[in-house]
Amino acid sequence: MPLTDPTIIPVELGDRRYPIVIGSGTAVEAGDASGGTLGEHLLGSLGDVSHAVMVYDAAVKDSAAASVQKTLQARVGRVDALEVASGETSKSIDNLGRLWNRLIEVNADRRSVIVAVGGGVVGDLAGFVAATYTRGLRFVQVPTTLLAMVDSSVGGKTGINLPGGKNMVGSFWQPHLVWIDTDFMATLPDREYLSGLAEVIKYGVIEDAEFFAYLEDNMQAIVARDPQSVRHAIACSCQSKARVVADDERETSGRRAILNYGHTFAHAIEATAGYGTMLHGEAVAIGMQMAARLAVALGKCEADLINRQTRLLDNAQLPLVWPQANPEAMIPVMARDKKVAHGKLRFVLPDRIGHVELVGDVPVDQVRFAIDACQ
Ligand SMILES: NC(=O)c1ccc[n+]([C@@H]2O[C@H](COP(=O)([O-])OP(=O)(O)OC[C@H]3O[C@@H](n4cnc5c(N)ncnc54)[C@H](O)[C@@H]3O)[C@@H](O)[C@H]2O)c1
Ligand SMILES: O=C(O)C(=O)C[C@@H](O)[C@H](O)[C@H](O)COP(=O)(O)O
Ligand SMILES: [Zn+2]
């Protein structure tokens, strides 16, 4: 079905403002679609580009990537398609070097645009390539996972992992356009889809109590991928992220740090489990449980918050515990968290549903307790 009713959410960053366009059926280059096609939005957002480099996840080669490539060919003309192997381990130094060299081979220059088609892995990797090649190329995000649609494609955090820590090398590099076609999720496996719901629930806890209540009432429909409910959940998530990013683009005031709720634990879970063993959203679900336990232990919030969060994560079929959690392995990794200030860990902790704070000076025993409580 052609896109006739896109939701357009602006990310207000002054002269780097860009739209998040949410619709379905955009693969069709329908000239009469009132909301416009990817091709039309591309031209509107990019200015004078004469070459597109589509960096895509191998899993979407014959689906999303094939249709985006067709659009790029029709609208931009010269297109090169660079494949990235599926999975978290692709966010690596090796892949970064390989893509930089491929850009030389395909004669990319400052009139080239990088178009990422895939989940957060491809988006983060291709975004960092765009940020760094010839000191910066224009960039478009076409997310194909729920997690990428609600979180990673928006806000300009790009980068790769190091063995010792998630996203340790990267940059803030905003896209010119985020193009969300919910049809691209048709082939997404359930486990990956559910993983994205952890970041959706995150927005409810950190800054939107009304959205949290909506999720409580509608999680069954969202899990069943009811189109209207999914669209609403994506739009509310993108609005939430756009608000926070517009307030604090580079995480300097502390406001953007709220998007990191659960992530101090989650990144340590991912790194100590081995990248790709635990999906990012799964680790975030467990990390949010650990953070909520920590908040209650520190007297920052009522235990009922844990009950509501647990119920919602459970209804989203997300994991709540990680039996292999080992505080002695996780705490040194957590010490490399990007929120560390003057050598001290800081945690994003809820005081009620819809509100969190950045908290420092947390006794390490309490951190151990929170990890142990989710084993
Ligand atoms: N930059 C940010 O702000 C930000 C925010 C959140 C997460 N992240 C990062 O995003 C990554 C996780 O993203 P993700 O969950 O999208 O993982 P992902 O990119 O690894 O994609 C998940 C899996 O789904 C497959 N896939 C993707 N689209 C598909 C489709 N339409 N049909 C079938 N299979 C498909 C991929 O091949 C992969 O196996 C992590 O590296 C995380 O750190 C970044
Ligand atoms: O956009 C942000 O800011 C976030 O923190 C969103 C997170 O969901 C995301 O996982 C992000 O990549 C984590 O960033 P990091 O700075 O902790 O590496
Ligand atoms: Zn995340």
From TrEMBL:
Binding locations of Zn(2+): E199, H263, H280
Gene Ontology CC: cytoplasm
UniProt key word Repressor: no
EC number(s) given by UniProt: 4.2.3.4
GO terms (BP aspect): amino acid biosynthetic process; aromatic amino acid family biosynthetic process; chorismate biosynthetic process
Keywords, alphabetical: Amino-acid biosynthesis, Aromatic amino acid biosynthesis, Cobalt, Cytoplasm, Lyase, Metal-binding, NAD, Nucleotide-binding, Zinc
Domain 3-dehydroquinate synthase C-terminal: residue ranges: 196-340
Binding site for NAD(+): 86-91, 120-124, 144-145, 157, 166, 184-187
Cofactor(s) required, per the database record: Co(2+); Zn(2+); NAD(+)
GO molecular function, one term: 3-dehydroquinate synthase activity
Cofactor, how bound (note): Binds 1 divalent metal cation per subunit. Can use either Co(2+) or Zn(2+).
Annotated catalysed reactions: 7-phospho-2-dehydro-3-deoxy-D-arabino-heptonate = 3-dehydroquinate + phosphate
Entry-linked InterPro entries: Dehydroquinate_synthase (IPR050071), DHQ_synth_AroB (IPR016037), DHQ_synth_fam (IPR030963), DHQS/DOIS_N (IPR030960), DHQS_C (IPR056179)
Pfam families in alphabetical order: DHQ_synthase (PF01761), DHQS_C (PF24621)
Residue ranges constituting the 3-dehydroquinate synthase N-terminal domain according to the UniProt record: 83-193
Compartments reported by the entry: Cytoplasm
Matches recorded under PANTHER family: 3-DEHYDROQUINATE SYNTHASE, 3-DEHYDROQUINATE SYNTHASE, CHLOROPLASTIC
Main function: Catalyzes the conversion of 3-deoxy-D-arabino-heptulosonate 7-phosphate (DAHP) to dehydroquinate (DHQ).
Sequence similarity: Belongs to the sugar phosphate cyclases superfamily. Dehydroquinate synthase family.
Protein name, per record: 3-dehydroquinate synthase
